[in-house]
Design brief:
alpha/beta; about 210 residues; five-stranded mixed sheet; 11 helices; about 10% strand
Length: about 210
């Protein structure tokens, strides 16, 4: 959402998927998009947040319909939306989290609420409802509460790296660079505001067979 090359990005992701060269982590925008589709007949695309987050514009890019046609031909747009590769291929390929020897990659945070949840790795068997909630979780709140995983670093997004200033007094308020903490690496550059994308390269970490 909130980009002008949604179709090109989708084609790029599909190509990576076809070559088993990518692991996709599901985020809250995928949940919101599915919710939009499932409530299409109720004109849920009229909701303000779908416009503010660029979701309506993304629909137009992926289906080829204009914004006007979304309102004048909702049934046709809804059917095209449903048949789009985003729903047929990309979202079904997504995982809640991906774990390697030293890292756990996740969108918002793991669905943990206390230290026992962390120690007993309860996120491994969490329900879909709990994961939906976790994808909206602010990483800095969980990090402040010490809900990290011993021996692992949680790599996450969803909320801006600007919150890193809460833990580093030398970090400036407008710093959107990657935040490195003890047990966490936050990536979200708030691209719509900063105009930048953070890329983290991790070397010598075995990820296993992607297939």
């Amino acid at each position: 959402d909130r980009g002008v090359e949604a179709l090109q990005l989708q084609e790029f992701i599909l190509e990576l998927l076809s070559k088993d060269q990518v692991i996709l982590i599901r985020g809250n925008h995928e949940d919101l998009t599915l919710n939009l589709l499932h409530n299409w007949s109720r004109n849920s695309y009229l909701h303000r947040h779908h416009h503010l987050n660029g979701r309506l514009d993304t629909i137009c890019q992926l289906t080829g319909f204009s914004e006007r046609e979304v309102f004048t031909k909702p049934n046709e747009v809804g059917k095209a939306f449903l048949l789009n590769p985003l729903f047929q291929t990309i979202i079904p390929a997504m995982v809640d989290y991906f774990e390697t020897e030293h890292y756990i990659f996740v969108h918002g945070w793991l669905p943990v609420f206390n230290e026992d949840d962390v120690a007993e790795r309860r996120w491994e068997n969490s329900s879909e409802r709990m994961w939906k909630s976790a994808r909206f979780t602010e990483w800095y709140k969980m990090y402040k509460d010490g809900l990290t995983v011993p021996g692992k670093t949680i790599v996450c997004g969803h909320r801006s790296t600007r919150y890193g200033r809460m833990f580093d007094e030398n970090r400036k308020d407008d710093d959107y660079s990657i935040f490195y903490g003890d047990g966490v690496i936050a990536l979200d550059a708030t691209t719509i505001q900063s105009g930048r994308i953070n890329v983290l390269v991790i070397e010598n970490e075995e990820v296993g067979d992607l297939r």
